[in-house]
From TrEMBL, chains A, B:
The keyword Transmembrane does not apply. SUPFAM superfamilies: P-loop containing nucleoside triphosphate hydrolases. Coiled coil: none annotated. This is Polyphosphate kinase 2 family protein. Keywords: Kinase, Transferase. It comes from Nocardioides aestuarii. GO terms for molecular function: kinase activity. Residues 30-258 form the Polyphosphate kinase-2-related domain. Residues 1-26 are annotated as: Disordered.
Length: 281, 281
């Protein structure tokens, strides 16, 4: 059960063209092996998540926040379904960030994000996140460059506060090639059960691929902190993407090492009460 | 793949002592068969849920709300984990209602419930619900009988409005015997990984078993409407409980018959745009 240390982005400048989108770092097997390895993660993920949840019910502040970023069709939804779906849904809180509402626009860009943070003991998942506020807004010049510049630091500061408050932040960028995106968009146009996922605007956004890459590269470099590092997950192969995020999640939970809470009551006395009771009817 | 029509509570007075807690209505197999049948539900549940979700993204108001009620240890959590856990977590919104907060207490009893209703396209799940406001409050006389009396009608009116707004309300009471509860409480006291689930107050509540049964019986009779009927699920056998709720969920989604939305764009024109584009780099 290898860990996924190769996916952790090293410090320094980032050139996404040098990071393969179809590789399978830290994993030797093929697709069938990968699916099996993902299924095998289920028990350990469930155990770790339940321990974290139990801790949260017993006064611990700890929680985990998985942040998923990536271009359209990079597979954020697939990770939610196949990887996050392995965990007991009682302990998971997913939030998908869309274009900000009028109300959200009137607030600081972190306002809506802070309202959706997971509670103690939970695994929170952000499908897109505060990182959109240094990506799409930069590509389309919706915000002046100085403001974007200031946001990298604000994000780092925010994530530092989260960490200080017991939140482990696991950041994954799902990395696909433009060819893979094209295939997936065509697949949506070829399958009536996928029409609803298609938006003509997605093709317009493809026209800005180079700008998005540049925005991602700067963002990755500037927010790749020791306390909340980025992981770049090759995502052309769906099975590898799902497995890699699953193992990163497992590694993060292992690192937290959550423990079953001890009893805050007298176990023998409670057993005796049950033994002595008048049987309910 | 039989439906679970026997679980639907017939109209009229309810005597829970006449409904077996360890039976397996509408199912012939044993535990292994039941677990297999539950796993087999996964694909159909996923397909139906995704259709509902797709509809919701395309303007439909429809949604489903699963309401789970039952005594402590009746297995609400187990249903969430094993049955609701079969569905893509992106399309599910679970809310566990605890003792009301000070803020919640200052509002109408339905206030907190209305704030947690699922959005269009979602499967919402209430782990406990507005029904606590005619159960525990009645058992402990926290609310005068006349108020409790008025709440049955308010609940029926509320659920009628939900239905009119496109929400299918699926109500399940998980029905266990006091002996099964005793076994499960003892199991929590015997297993350090389960201490966190144990609360000494649970044993105190057992002392009110008869009062709870009476409160459930009245509640079931008074809120068992045509539009939002109750299902009483024998829950002494965990595997049957999980399967039964899964099939009820499947039946409810089948009844909604959600359809893939048609394309609101010109499919061929979009394909052409992808074919004609300058390849992104």
């Amino acid at each position: 059960m290898g860990s996924m240390s190769l996916l952790r982005l090293p410090p320094g400048p980032v050139d996404l063209t040098t990071i393969p989108t179809d590789a399978t770092p830290d994993f030797d097997g093929d697709k069938a092996d990968g699916k099996e390895a993902l299924a095998e993660l289920g028990d350990e993920l469930s155990d770790l998540q339940e321990r974290l949840f139990a801790e949260g019910r017993s006064g611990s502040h700890r929680r985990l926040l998985l942040v998923l970023q990536g271009m359209d069709t990079s597979g954020k939804g697939g990770v939610l379904r196949h990887t996050v779906g392995l965990i007991d849904p009682q302990g998971v809180r997913i939030h998908s960030f869309k274009a900000p509402t009028e109300e959200e626009k009137q607030h600081h860009f972190l306002w809506r994000v802070k309202r959706k943070l997971p509670e103690a003991g939970y695994v929170g998942v952000f499908d897109r996140s505060h990182y959109e506020d240094v990506l799409i807004v930069r590509v389309h010049d919706w915000v002046d460059p100085r403001t974007v510049e200031s946001r990298y630091e604000q994000i780092n500061e925010f994530e530092k506060e989260l960490a200080a408050d017991g939140t482990v932040v696991l950041k994954c960028m799902l990395h696909i090639s433009p060819d893979t995106q094209k295939e997936r968009l065509l697949a949506r146009l070829d399958d009536p059960t996928k029409y609803w996922k298609f938006n003509p605007g997605d093709i317009d956004e493809r026209g800005h691929w180079g700008d998005y890459r540049a925005a991602y590269e700067t963002m990755l470099e500037r927010t790749n902190t020791e306390i909340a590092p980025w992981h770049v997950v090759p995502a052309d192969r769906k099975w590898y993407r799902n497995l890699a995020v699953g193992r990163l999640l497992r590694d993060a939970l292992r690192g937290m090492n959550p423990q079953w809470p001890t009893a805050d009551f007298d176990i023998d006395a409670e057993k005796q009460r049950l033994a002595d009771e008048v049987p309910p009817a």
